[in-house]
């Protein structure tokens, strides 16, 4: 493990150019969750009352290849006054990107102008720190920025938790109660981690899992936003389908403009695509009619859908009934699948109007749910909707 003084904003390099992100020799010979390098940083490049470290750690991607990922661990500068060890919250920022310059770890060091989603998530992470919890937030998409790659994301989250435990900052140890939290793209990674946990990381037992604005039914999300202000999300889904499942042949279903898009936007952040492709339609980039319903596209996206197995941890899941970005029907179908498999869930169909208002308005309930789980308050078995 390598140490070092806090890194300063005037020395920031994009992750692809920063040697700290480079995998060490012998990556394949160490266990998942092993800490390869560490450095202390100033959170957002500011003198905040939070001790912050970045850890390069070993994980495995969806193909089973050893990979070096980055995670950021935050500890409030206050002692934990509760019973037992300080809780550890795995917070999944909505990375939503095609390039590592959009990774949370870069934004958390103060890297700008990219990292809008990290900035939007900062108040919720601050609430966790205010409660005295430690926070670990990983670049779960990995060095290839594989957005909506469920297995890669889930493993990245679980191995980031392992790395934080192995590093063992102030008050965090093997006895620390664990929680997971994510909204939108972060909810996707959170729930994939919770689904994979019993078999991939059985020692990483979550006391509770909270997720909102859950991306379920990826083709429906793309169909719902194309032609509108969030049309860039539809094209982001096309990008990720090509990247994550090249053997599906989706790239061969694009026209010249679509193939040019794959090259031009190969390292774009999601928010950049939203600004760039306002009002666009997927048909403008495809050589076949209705690409979003083509068997190749449906087969590729089906591999990334949540719900094939239910998490064993108790969950608090929420979604706006009027979400204009991620249709509520996919969320309802997902929670129904989880419930049919015997999961313990509190399901919140939020009346707050839309994707972003629900993210803000329902966060307090989600954090309180985790607080109860950390305190050992029991949950009622089964599914409970409201």
Number of strands: 10
CATH topology of the largest domain: Rossmann fold
* Strand numbers in spatial order across the main sheet: 1-2-3-5-4-6-7-8-9-10
Counted up, domains total: 2
Helix content: 25-40%
Mean pLDDT: 95
Which blocks of ≥5 consecutive residues have pLDDT under 50? 1-10
Kindly provide the name of the CATH class of the largest domain: Alpha Beta
Q: Which structural class do you get from the secondary structure elements?
A: alpha/beta
List keywords for this structure.
disordered N terminus; 386 residues; 2 domains; ten-stranded mixed β-sheet; Rossmann fold; 10 strands; single chain; 434 Repressor (Amino-terminal Domain); globular; alpha/beta
Summarize the structure.
The chain is of the alpha/beta class.
Task: Compile the SSE list and pairings.
Elements: E1 35-41, E2 50-60, E3 66-76, E4 88-92, H1 104-108, H2 116-130, E5 134-138, H3 150-167, E6 178-183, H4 185-200, E7 206-212, H5 218-225, H6 231-244, H7 256-264, H8 270-276, H9 295-302, E8 315-320, H10 328-340, E9 345-350, H11 355-361, H12 363-374, E10 383-385
Parallel strand pairs: 4-5, 4-6, 6-7, 7-8, 8-9, 9-10
Antiparallel strand pairs: 1-2, 2-3, 3-5
Helix pairs in contact: 3-4, 5-6, 6-8
């Amino acid at each position: 493990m390598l140490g070092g003084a806090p890194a300063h904003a005037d020395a920031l390099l994009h992750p692809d150019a920063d040697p700290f992100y480079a995998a060490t020799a012998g990556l394949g010979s160490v266990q998942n969750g092993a800490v390869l390098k560490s450095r202390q940083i100033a959170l957002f490049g500011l003198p905040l009352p939070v001790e912050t470290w970045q850890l390069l750690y070993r994980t495995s991607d969806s193909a089973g290849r050893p990979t070096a990922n980055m995670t950021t661990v935050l500890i409030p500068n206050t002692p934990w006054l509760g019973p037992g060890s300080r809780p550890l919250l795995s917070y999944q920022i909505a990375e939503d990107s095609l390039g590592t310059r959009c990774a949370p770890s870069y934004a958390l060091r103060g890297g700008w102008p990219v990292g809008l989603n990290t900035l939007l998530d900062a108040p919720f992470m601050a609430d966790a720190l205010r409660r005295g919890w430690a926070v670990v937030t990983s670049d779960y998409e990995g060095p290839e920025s594989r957005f909506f790659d469920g297995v890669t994301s889930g493993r990245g989250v679980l191995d980031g938790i392992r790395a934080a435990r192995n590093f063992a900052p102030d008050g965090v140890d093997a006895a620390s109660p664990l929680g997971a939290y994510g909204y939108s793209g972060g909810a996707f990674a959170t729930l994939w981690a919770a689904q994979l946990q019993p078999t991939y990381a059985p020692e990483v037992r979550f006391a509770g899992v909270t997720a909102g604005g859950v991306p379920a039914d990826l083709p429906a999300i793309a169909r719902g936003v194309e032609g509108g202000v969030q049309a860039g999300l539809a094209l982001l889904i096309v990008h990720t389908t090509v990247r994550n499942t090249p053997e599906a042949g989706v790239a061969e279903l694009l026209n010249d403009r679509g193939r040019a898009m794959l090259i031009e936007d190969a390292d774009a952040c999601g928010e950049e695509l939203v600004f760039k492709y306002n009002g666009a339609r997927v048909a403008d980039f495809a050589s076949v009619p209705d690409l979003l319903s083509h068997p190749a596209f449906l087969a590729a996206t089906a591999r990334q859908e949540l719900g094939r197995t239910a998490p064993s941890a108790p969950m608090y899941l929420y979604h706006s009934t009027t979400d204009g970005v991620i249709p509520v029907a996919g969320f309802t179908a997902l929670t129904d699948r989880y419930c049919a498999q015997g999961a313990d869930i509190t399901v919140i169909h939020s009346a707050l109007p839309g994707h972003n208002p629900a993210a803000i308005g329902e966060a307090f309930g989600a954090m309180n749910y985790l607080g109860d789980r950390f305190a050992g308050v029991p949950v009622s078995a089964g599914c409970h909707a409201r």
